[in-house]
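Summary of Year 1 activities. Much of the first year was spent building the evaluation harness for sequence design. The harness presents a backbone, in tokenized form, and records the residue chosen at every position. We chose the following record to illustrate the format because it has been used consistently in internal testing since the harness was completed.
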């Protein structure tokens, strides 16, 4: 950080150190004034037995820590970090990129880009970009209808004292939340049926009453939850290719354990939604259970 200051400009160097600390802790720029006030309050006692106490206190007073200098220094430090990243990435023999969904406080989807590369013998993993992912819907009538349906559905959930407060939507941007979308949809199934019945739209969605389709939905929901757990383990810092491959192989082995338990012992505990749905069926409807399980086994064996 001292590339921006001359050799003997101690107050300027100190202001860069303060800006760095403020930025690292995510504090607002005006916190610099608080730092100076705290330093001065401590200095009176801390340096009371120093012969040059007055010089030290004056030096603290001279450090530029107001909002604008903090902003300027933070921007310069960020620019320097970006330049270092570019140099490291350009000189690295290999790099790997990870693209992930990022949801801000307004629930807007963004694309987070992470890079992993070597600097000497050290593996670095850095966030290098965040960009918004925009989608458009043409037709104000469609938008209005969707908004109205959402309000009606939310009102229904409130009326029946649901533990959830709304559905979450799945799209190609938010691929990592597929398991959660299915999980909540399945938990909401009775409320969704009630909503469609109130809106006289039940006949438009016969799939929600089709036993075979519902069994496959429950099965797929449980399976996606297991994949979500794997995705979470593969994400995060310090995950080398060797570690990730070990996690994937362990997951594949776990699937085969599931397969054998289902075939040999008829154990369905690893598929809780599917198991619960099976228990709710009558004897005649349970014939569909074998068909779904056979489909799963054929997928595993292919």
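For this record, the design step produced the sequence shown next.
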């Amino acid at each position: 950080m001292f590339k921006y200051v001359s050799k003997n400009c101690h107050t300027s160097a100190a202001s860069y150190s303060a800006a760095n600390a403020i930025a690292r802790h995510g504090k607002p720029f005006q916190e610099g004034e608080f730092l100076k006030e705290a330093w001065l309050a401590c200095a009176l006692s801390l340096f009371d037995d120093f012969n040059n106490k007055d010089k030290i206190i004056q030096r603290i007073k001279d450090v530029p820590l107001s909002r604008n200098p903090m902003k300027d220094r933070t921007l310069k430090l960020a620019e320097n970090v970006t330049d270092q990243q570019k140099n490291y990435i350009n000189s690295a023999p290999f790099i790997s990129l990870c693209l992930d969904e990022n949801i801000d406080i307004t629930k807007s989807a963004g694309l987070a880009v992470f890079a992993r590369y070597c600097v000497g013998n050290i593996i670095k993993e850095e966030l290098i970009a965040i960009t918004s992912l925009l989608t458009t819907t043409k037709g104000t009538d469609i938008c209005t209808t969707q908004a109205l349906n959402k309000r009606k559905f939310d009102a229904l959930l409130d009326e029946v004292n649901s533990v959830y407060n709304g559905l979450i939507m799945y799209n190609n941007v938010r691929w990592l939340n597929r398991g959660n979308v299915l999980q909540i949809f399945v938990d909401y199934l009775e409320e969704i049926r009630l909503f469609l019945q109130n809106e006289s739209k039940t006949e438009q969605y016969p799939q929600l009453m089709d036993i075979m389709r519902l069994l496959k939905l429950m099965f797929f929901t449980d399976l996606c939850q297991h994949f979500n757990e794997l995705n979470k383990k593969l994400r995060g810092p310090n995950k080398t290719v060797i570690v990730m491959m070990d996690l994937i192989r362990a997951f594949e082995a776990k699937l085969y354990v599931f397969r054998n338990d289902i075939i040999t012992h008829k154990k369905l505990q690893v598929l809780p939604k599917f198991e619960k749905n099976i228990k709710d069926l009558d004897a005649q409807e349970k014939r569909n259970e074998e068909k779904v399980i056979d489909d799963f086994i054929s997928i595993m064996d292919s």
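The first strand starts at residue 95 and ends at 103. Quantitative recovery figures across the full test set are reported in Table 2.
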